[in-house]
Every structure is written in C-alpha cells, then in structure tokens.
Write a structure and sequence with these properties.
Distance between the termini: 32 Å
Structural class: alpha/beta
Strand content: 25-35%
Order of helices and strands: EEEHEEEEHHHEHEHEE
Bound molecules: adenosine-5'-diphosphate
Strand order of the largest sheet: 7-8-9-3-10-11
Largest sheet: 6 strands, mixed
Oligomer: single chain
Helix content: 25-40%
Shape: globular
Number of helices: 6
C-alpha cells in the first residue's frame, strides 16, 4: 500500500520489435521498436496516424505477436521471445477498449457487463456488476439493449465492461472519438475516479490535446514505430480541461 492506501501496482514493461507490411511494390515496411515502462496512472500515447500506436496496444493485449522482445507486468511475464513465453489474450487480464463499439446487440447492458465475469460465483458477480454500473453512471440503463442507448452511454458501458473483469492494465484506443465535449468531460471524470481507486497502468491513445491534458499523468510521443519523446506530465496550459 502507498501513503494514501492504494495498492502499489506493478508497472507494465514493454520492450518489443515488430515488423509489419512491406509486401507489394509500394508498401513501405513498418517496424515498431520500443522500450517503455508504463507506471500506474494514465499514459497518453500521441503520434500521427501510422506511428504504431495500435500495433503497440495489440502486442500488449496479445492480439499481435512481436518478432522479438518481452512484455511483463511486474514479475509476471506475458511475452518473452527468448524464453518462448506467450500468454494467450484471455489469460493476460488486460482490458482493451477500441474505437468501434463491440457490445453484444442481443444482450442487455447488464448482461453485456456480466459476460466477462460469467465464471464468478453469483453473489460476488452481482456485486461487481452493481458497483461498476453505478461507477460509470449506467445503472438506470441496465435492462436496455445497446440499440436503446445513446453513443455516449454505449461508450460508458464499453468501459464498464472492460473494467468489471478487474484488469491489471487497461488499453484505450481513441475511446471517445465522435463524442461531444460534455459527454467526454463526464466520462473523463468517471475514468479519473476509477484510475484513483484502482491505480493500474492505463494507456490512452488520443489525438485530442484537451483529452490528454484532462487525463494524462504521463505522455509518450510516437513516430514511425519509435518513441520520440517521453514526458512525465503534460503541462496544464490555459485551456486545460473542458
Ligand atoms: P497508428 O495506430 O499509430 O495509426 P498502426 O499501428 O495502426 O498506427 O500502424 C502502424 C503501421 O502498421 C502502419 O504502417 C500500417 O500501415 C501498418 N499496419 C497496420 N495494420 C496492418 C496490417 N493488418 N497488416 C500490415 N500492416 C499493417
């Protein structure tokens, strides 16, 4: 525990190399080559389109296999090419929220959230679902289907669904694209509260400087597959927040 009672969370260490594409006459080969440590808190990943942000998140989640390198959370190795370790996606305990929403259309909000923790005993499961429904302010929507809620509400349900599994790392790839500023501000507030309570490494890809300022504890700038700048904290500036 730290001074304010948070559990000290293991940092995420990523040292990987991954090449992609390059086939065909005009395709330039792309190489992701990074060595990064992500502490607890929110790290903003900035960089132009094609910089390798999604490739990095996919490697961490286990959706892509790096050519070489290692990925670990504290002492636990998730991937290590030298030791032939490659923990499958579903055993990594990593939450991943994409830009496009992926709620199951035939399930209610509550069922969508419960899906990832179906194996828990019923009592504990319901408590976890109730907690997360209220943390992300979607409790009143619990019986609705995804087609009966707004885009902003669906984003909250997505976040709730990935966090109910109690991940040790959370990956967010432009999770608020297309939402208006008011909705973003509310979701950011909820995420910050969650980040304070759980203290896990959260990687957040965004092109929005205001989102970055409102959320980021740390910032990593990527370009052409490598990191060009790492800053401990984004300066607040006059237009911080929403
Ligand atoms: P970003 O998320 O920063 O926009 P990406 O990680 O999506 O960047 O892309 C990095 C590079 O990998 C780009 O050159 C892109 O063309 C290439 N790439 C992305 N997806 C694939 C794929 N499925 N197959 C081959 N190359 C890909």
């Amino acid at each position: 525990m730290d001074a304010v009672g948070h559990e000290i969370t293991a940092p995420l260490l990523v040292r990987v190399r991954k090449s992609r594409g390059g086939a065909g006459a005009h395709r330039q080969p792309f190489v992701l080559d990074v060595s990064l440590e992500f502490p607890a808190g929110i790290t903003i990943l900035f960089g132009p389109s094609g910089a390798g942000k999604s490739t990095l998140l996919d490697c961490i989640a286990g959706l892509l296999r790096p050519d070489t390198g290692s990925i670990s959370v504290g002492k636990e190795s998730l991937f290590d090419s030298a030791a032939a370790v490659d923990i499958p996606v579903h055993q990594r305990r990593i939450g991943y929220v994409f830009q496009s929403l992926a709620l199951f259309p035939h399930l209610t909000v509550e069922e969508n959230i419960g899906y990832g923790i179906a194996d828990l005993p019923a009592a504990g499961k319901q408590q976890r679902i109730d907690e997360i429904l209220s943390a992300f302010r979607v409790a009143e929507l619990r019986r609705r289907k995804p087609s009966e809620i707004s885009g902003g509400e669906a984003q909250r349900v997505e976040l709730a669904r990935s966090l109910v599994t109690d991940p040790r790392v959370l990956l967010l790839d432009e999770p608020m694209t297309g939402l208006d500023d008011d909705l973003k501000a509310h979701i950011i507030e909820d995420l910050r509260a969650w980040r304070t309570a759980r203290n896990i490494p959260i990687l957040y890809v965004t092109h929005s400087k205001s989102e970055a300022r409102a959320l980021g504890d740390h910032c990593v700038h990527m370009h052409s597959g490598t990191t060009v700048l790492e800053t401990p904290q984004l300066s607040p500036g006059p237009s911080a927040g929403f």
